[in-house]
Write a structure and sequence with these properties.
By secondary structure, this protein is mainly alpha-helical. A 6-stranded mixed β-sheet has the order 1-6-5-2-3-4, with helices on both faces. It has helices at 26-31, 36-47, 88-100, 120-139, 151-162, 175-187, 205-208, 216-230, 253-259, 274-288, 301-305, 311-325, 330-348, 366-374, 386-390, 397-409, 414-427, 431-445, 452-463, 484-490, 493-499; strands at 58-60, 74-77, 104-110, 143-148, 166-170, 194-197. Helix 16 (397-409) packs across helix 21 and helix 18 packs antiparallel against helix 19. It has 3 domains: 40-200, Rossmann fold; 203-235 and 272-349, Serine Threonine Protein Phosphatase 5, Tetratricopeptide repeat; 366-499, Orthogonal Bundle (DNA Cyclobutane Dipyrimidine Photolyase, subunit A, domain 3). The protein has 21 helices and 6 strands. The structure holds flavin-adenine dinucleotide. It is an enzyme of class 4 (lyase). InterPro entries: Crypto/Photolyase_FAD-like_sf, Crypto/Photolyase_N_sf, DNA_photolyase_2, DNA_photolyase_2_CS, DNA_photolyase_N, Photolyase_Class-2, Rossmann-like_a/b/a_fold. Its EC number is 4.1.99.3.
């Protein structure tokens, strides 16, 4: 069907994500009886019940480090890692509560910014995860509170009112969460410590490296050297023995979702699982991960992005699964650990993580800045507006198909993301506009968007971040180039175009 006749736009009345499912395939359903992983993980956690907490996973944000005495409980302010088990921030908050023999509380400050990036797709996924968190907390005697508004406005008052003695939170290197953290720090009672635990990275971001890293090759050794220490099992979070006298208000999740001011034209999606990855797709990962027609990837990025699943858990299980199947897992660990943790490093040590004004660790990336400037006035073969891109109205069927994929399914294949972003550089008037449009489309439609991986993915494709210079050519300068012919050599492009 000609691209122009197909609708991929947010103008569609029905939520577009509903149209296709990425649920397990027939092959995945047949492979093994589902549910084995849950049982295996439960056993591992139980065996590791007494496992200690590595204090390098935390840092104090407040001046005070001592928990306030005589308090009514400890609070875990859940910011990025929306899960109960396999969560080092919650594990640490629980340890503090056990030491002081006080109740444990979890709170989420739900704030929906007025933005085209606040979509039903993202918030329904978040709320489904939170509903599970709330139910698990209830079963474990932990109070789950949902506060509606920015953390800086609500959390300090909540801590005072509930007479809580310490606040533990998790770690995100992105601008808004860092601002919320600063706000909370300023307004929190001075005798209540604010403790941040990196529950997202296996090697905590500040331990992996104290500085902005130049590329995967400069951080790889630093991370892998520390994996034996940090890539451990998790202790089971058991029922909390100290009951709270003040209990949390129950949440009506349906009502909550329908009351949120989100853009409902970008609809919900459905997704596959870690278990089916280990059973079926892992054996193909190494050889077929660059083929968008093959089911070879884990599909886990949305769960990791929203913290519903711990990357450390994924790494552990995939290593174990790989050993059982006799399958190499190093290429997967490279993506999941090295590449992913490099993106937190990039955003944490570089405030301009979404700008063409790339950072300046001594001399680094100067080549990219210069080459983009040198070629800023080159004639572009095609020029498309953001709207044309959003509607997949380009001359390139493969690009349009990739754009349709993300609009409908909420996730574009990893290989195509590179091609997709590089073409935006080629077809827009300036690198600044290309980056802004790529980030807008990525963060609005990718369910895993608004994440350091997305900022770095777009920066890598358009600004050469973490890459090297290549043969110079128009528009791109020395930024790595990708073209349609190259895709034809890699996979059955026509089959992919037919599918979307
Ligand atoms: C232009 C562009 C935009 C991107 N936008 C995002 C985004 O918004 N969110 C996002 O999570 N990823 C993004 N990526 C990285 C990558 O494409 C996705 O993480 C991957 O396709 C997700 O699919 P998967 O979970 O099946 O990955 P798998 O290949 O199965 O990998 C497993 C996990 O490793 C991590 N990972 C894989 N590839 C990378 C990578 N290149 N860099 C960092 N981590 C990686 C992810 O957490 C992923 O879930 C982007 C890449 C590019 C080039």
């Amino acid at each position: 069907m000609p691209a122009k006749r197909r609708q991929a736009t947010p103008a569609a009345k029905e939520p577009v994500g509903k149209q296709r499912k990425l649920a397990p395939t027939e092959e995945e359903k047949k492979t093994k009886a589902g549910g084995w992983l849950e049982e295996e993980v439960k056993q591992q956690r139980t065996q590791n019940k007494e496992m200690g907490f590595i204090t390098k996973r935390l840092r104090f944000i407040s001046d005070t480090e001592e928990m306030r005495q005589g308090s009514e409980g400890v609070l875990y302010w859940m910011l990025r890692d929306h899960r109960v088990q396999d969560n080092w921030a919650l594990i640490h908050a629980r340890r503090l509560a056990l030491e002081e023999k006080v109740p444990l509380h979890v709170c989420v400050c739900l704030h929906v910014p007025k933005s085209q990036l606040s979509t039903l797709r993202h918030y329904s996924f978040l709320l489904k995860g939170l509903e599970e968190v709330a139910a698990e907390c209830k079963a474990l005697g932990i109070q789950f509170h949902l506060l509606r508004g920015p953390a800086g406005d609500l959390l300090p008052g909540f801590v005072s009112e509930q007479q809580l003695g310490a606040v533990v939170t998790d770690f995100s290197p992105l601008r808004e969460p860092l601002t919320w953290l600063e706000d909370v720090k300023k307004k929190l009672p001075k005798d209540v410590p604010l403790i941040q635990v990196d529950a997202h990275n296996i090697v905590p971001c500040w331990v992996a490296s104290p500085k902005l890293e130049y590329a995967a090759r400069t951080i790889r050794g630093k991370i892998t050297k520390q994996l034996p220490e940090f890539l451990t099992d998790f202790p089971l979070v058991e029922k909390h023995p100290h009951a709270a006298t003040r209990t949390a208000k129950p949440v009506d999740w349906r009502e909550l979702l329908s009351s949120l001011g989100v853009d409902r034209t970008v609809g919900e999606t459905e997704w596959a699982m870690l278990e089916s990855f280990i059973d079926v797709r892992l054996k193909r990962f190494d050889s077929q991960r660059n083929d968008p027609n093959a089911a070879a990837l884990s599909q886990l990025s949305p769960w990791i992005r929203f913290g519903h699943v711990s990357a450390q858990r994924v790494a552990l299980q995939v290593q174990r699964g790989g050993r059982k199947l006799g399958v190499g897992v190093s290429s997967f660990i490279e993506e999941l650990v090295v590449r992913r943790e490099l993106t937190d490093n990039f955003c944490f040590y570089n405030e301009k993580y979404d700008s063409v004004e790339v950072p300046r660790p001594p001399g680094a990336y100067e080549w990219a800045r210069k080459t983009l400037k040198d070629h800023a006035k080159d004639k572009r073969p095609y020029i498309y507006t953001r709207e044309q891109l959003e509607k997949a109205e380009t001359h390139d069927k493969l690009w349009n198909a990739a754009q349709f994929q993300v609009v409908r399914e909420g996730k574009m294949h990893g290989f195509l993301r590179m091609y997709w972003a590089k073409k935006i550089l080629e077809w827009t008037p300036s690198p600044e506009e290309a980056l802004a449009s790529a980030l807008y489309l990525n963060d609005r439609y990718e369910l895993d968007g608004q994440d350091p991986n997305g900022f770095v993915g777009c920066m890598w494709s358009i600004c050469g971040i973490h890459d090297q210079g290549w043969a110079e050519r128009p528009v791109f300068g020395k930024i790595r180039y990708m073209n349609y012919k190259g895709c034809l050599r890699k996979f059955d492009v026509a089959a992919f175009e037919r599918k979307y």
